[in-house]
């Protein structure tokens, strides 16, 4: 015997996370049913329960919708947070996706530490998401569609209703006498998701009544497959890492199958907090960097980030300009020295240098007398011996004495003269690049 709508929702909410709960509340049917069900739970209230409405300002009734949410929450004796966001298009997608992106950015930024954001996505939403991603040519990660749980800002996102249909939520709302908002834009088939909901899925259900359940099952199977792939990716990434977390061994990457290599590259870039690789990014790295000569300085740049090949390694980092060739500044070490384009030089463990020194950019041909040596070495060869990549050398600040003697290159190399002075005081230089 099928569960009643109230029992079905209660079952979905049976295992509440042991954290404060925040319901993403639009004022519509789905989130209204979820909020009402959680408000009826003594456990949810005891843990801390609130609602959060994101005001996009896209509809003339947006203020009235926020007022509706405030009235419902007051009736349930729940705190309501209202966030106004600016919806910016221009990412190659439509207003639906732009609003969703702004909404999730607000959630990620404002969620409390350890708090769980509870969203009311259901089985019908999952079917729409799966079909949209199929039409975009997504792989297993995308076809896993909406995950039940994932990290979100300082907390966690939870979708407990993915096994329930919209019809079940509607029956629950009607039985409980709930009020909700019907967004008129949901009836516009010009939007991709609405087109699937209004035209495509009803037609599929005529022939295959269990289509929604089948789509949900496929998404769950894809999620399991994606998890297995993810575990393999993590192992492969660990095997390709160098001592520098921003670098991977090209030799180790070339030993991987191409499909695994592409996944590892994307995982690495994400772990570094860099913008996601564009669609052709992994292929560009494969074609232009993996087999480049050790000294070729091949690179692939996108959205302010860059991957470079040098020697056996791939290096990934934000793009930063070299120091201006004419940059020079006096520095006595008493305070940190701000560097052009960001970064800082600091003297730790000593109040100041014995006399003001000159910080400047490389110009070529510099020589340095290293500790334990009696004759000078070219700075270029000394940095090459340390394995400092060429682009880092171009950002490397130098420190010279008034007589022109080179004393330091960032915090990578000290001259014998400066090294002795620092050791006597237990001091050191810190170069923040």
Describe the structure in your own words.
This protein is of the alpha+beta class. The protein has 16 helices and 20 strands. The protein has helices spanning 5-12, 29-39, 42-47, 62-75, 95-110, 123-135, 140-143, 166-176, 192-207, 211-240, 250-254, 258-271, 281-288, 379-386, 390-395, 416-425; strands at residues 21-24, 49-55, 79-84, 116-118, 149-152, 155-158, 247-249, 299-302, 305-310, 313-318, 328-331, 337-338, 344-348, 357-360, 367-368, 377-378, 398-400, 406-409, 413-414, 428-432. The strands form five sheets. The chain has a six-stranded mixed sheet with strand order 3-2-1-4-6-5, with helices on both faces. A five-stranded antiparallel sheet has the order 11-14-17-18-19. Strands 7-10-9-8 form a four-stranded antiparallel sheet. Strand 8 and strand 9 (305-310) form a beta hairpin. Helix 1 packs across helix 8 (166-176), helix 6 (123-135) packs across helix 9 and helix 10 crosses helix 12 (258-271). The chain is elongated, with a radius of gyration of 29 Å. It starts with a helix and ends with a strand. The relative contact order is 0.07.
The main sheet orders its strands as 3-2-1-4-6-5
- Give me the secondary-structure category: alpha+beta
**CA gyration radius, whole angstroms:** 29 Å
Overall morphology? elongated
- Spatial separation of the terminal alpha carbons: 65 Å
Number of strands: 20
Tell me the fraction of residues in β-strands, as a range. Answer: 15-25%
Mean pLDDT: 91
Query: Number of helical runs?
Result: 16
Low-confidence stretches: none
Q: What composes the largest sheet?
A: 6 strands, mixed
| Residue share in helix | 40-55%
């Amino acid at each position: 015997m099928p569960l009643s709508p109230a029992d079905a929702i209660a079952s979905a909410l049976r295992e509440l996370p042991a954290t404060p709960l925040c319901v993403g509340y639009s004022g519509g049917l789905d989130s209204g049913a979820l909020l009402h069900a959680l408000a009826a739970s003594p456990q949810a209230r005891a843990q801390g329960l609130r609602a959060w409405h994101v005001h996009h300002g896209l509809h003339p009734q947006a203020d009235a919708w926020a007022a509706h949410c405030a009235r419902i929450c007051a009736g349930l004796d729940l705190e309501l947070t209202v966030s106004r966001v600016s919806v910016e298009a221009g990412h190659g997608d439509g207003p639906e996706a732009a609003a969703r992106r702004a909404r999730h950015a607000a959630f990620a930024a404002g969620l409390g530490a350890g708090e769980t954001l509870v969203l009311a996505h259901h089985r019908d939403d999952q079917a729409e998401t799966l079909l949209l991603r199929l039409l975009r040519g997504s792989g297993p990660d995308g076809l896993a569609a909406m995950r039940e749980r994932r990290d979100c800002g300082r907390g966690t996102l939870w979708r407990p209703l993915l096994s329930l249909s919209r019809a079940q939520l509607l029956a629950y709302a009607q039985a409980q006498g709930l009020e909700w908002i019907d967004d008129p834009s949901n009836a516009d088939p010009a939007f991709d998701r609405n087109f699937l909901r209004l035209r495509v899925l009803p037609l599929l259900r005529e022939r295959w009544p269990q289509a929604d359940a089948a789509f949900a099952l496929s998404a769950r199977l894809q999620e399991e497959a994606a998890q297995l792939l993810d575990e393999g990716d993590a192992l492969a990434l660990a095997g390709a890492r160098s001592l520098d977390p921003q670098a991977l061994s090209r030799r180790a990457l070339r030993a991987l199958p191409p499909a695994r290599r592409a996944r590892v590259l994307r995982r690495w870039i994400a772990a570094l907090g860099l913008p996601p690789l564009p669609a052709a990014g992994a292929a560009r790295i494969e074609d232009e960097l993996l087999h480049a000569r050790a000294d070729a300085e091949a690179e692939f740049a996108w959205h302010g980030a860059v991957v470079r090949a040098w020697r056996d390694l791939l290096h990934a980092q934000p793009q930063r300009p070299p120091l201006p060739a004419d940059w020079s500044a006096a520095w006595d070490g008493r305070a940190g020295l701000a560097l052009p384009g960001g970064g800082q030089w600091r003297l730790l463990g000593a109040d100041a240098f014995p006399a003001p020194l000159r910080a400047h950019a490389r110009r070529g041909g510099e020589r340095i007398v290293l500790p334990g040596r009696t004759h000078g070495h070219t700075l270029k060869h000394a940095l090459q011996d340390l394995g400092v990549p060429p682009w880092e050398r171009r950002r490397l600040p130098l420190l010279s004495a008034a007589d022109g003697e080179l004393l330091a290159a960032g915090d990578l190399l000290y001259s014998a003269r400066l090294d002795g002075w620092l050791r006597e005081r237990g001091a050191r230089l810190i170069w923040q690049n």
